[in-house]
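fwd from M.: "can u put these together and see what the complex looks like"

so here's what she sent:
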Amino acid sequence: AQTVTQSQPEMSVQEAETVTLSCTYDTSENNYYLFWYKQPPSRQMILVIRQEAYKQQNATENRFSVNFQKAAKSFSLKISDSQLGDTAMYFCAYAGNNRKLIWGLGTSLAVNP
Amino acid sequence: KAGVTQTPRYLIKTRGQQVTLSCSPISGHRSVSWYQQTPGQGLQFLFEYFSETQRNKGNFPGRFSGRQFSNSRSEMNVSTLELGDSALYLCASSLTGYHEQYFGPGTRLTVT
């Protein structure tokens, strides 16, 4: 069975600095998708970025980028120029052939002024 | 386009009762998935519906059930509520299920 591990339960960063959130996963599938979702306090889950496993190029979305290492089964999220609005719970998720989203337990990120 | 909507947003029920939660997906999205989110277990997949058929199911007891209507709206039902069913229930829609999922605000269920 697939698993997703986020080893950092909590992190903090100063406004305008860069922070990297870690995620590792385990799978025997070759084709799959990886996602980072953000859940601000008392607000709904928002998709931050997605990566298709067959693409070697790392996905980027404005200040958000990933470092996808397929062989190492690693999928980290880098947030550049952190903003107060980035304060949230960040979840790494995996979707394989059965389309079920398998979630990590999340990393709580606090951006400090 | 309007986002995913879920009703009600908050619900308080007593043990043994049953509850029905509703989800309206983004227009054009045919796949609806349900998740349970708790502090202890995190996010867990309940089931996915596509074109009125349950296409995937997670590891939850039969007390948890769902359905999807022809307009893609979905409902989930929990019967014989237990204290451990207290959670945030999230609904997500997707074009086909093979794309990224878009989440609703959730229904906060408290069982007393």
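replying to her w this: The two ends of chain B are 37 Å apart (CA to CA).
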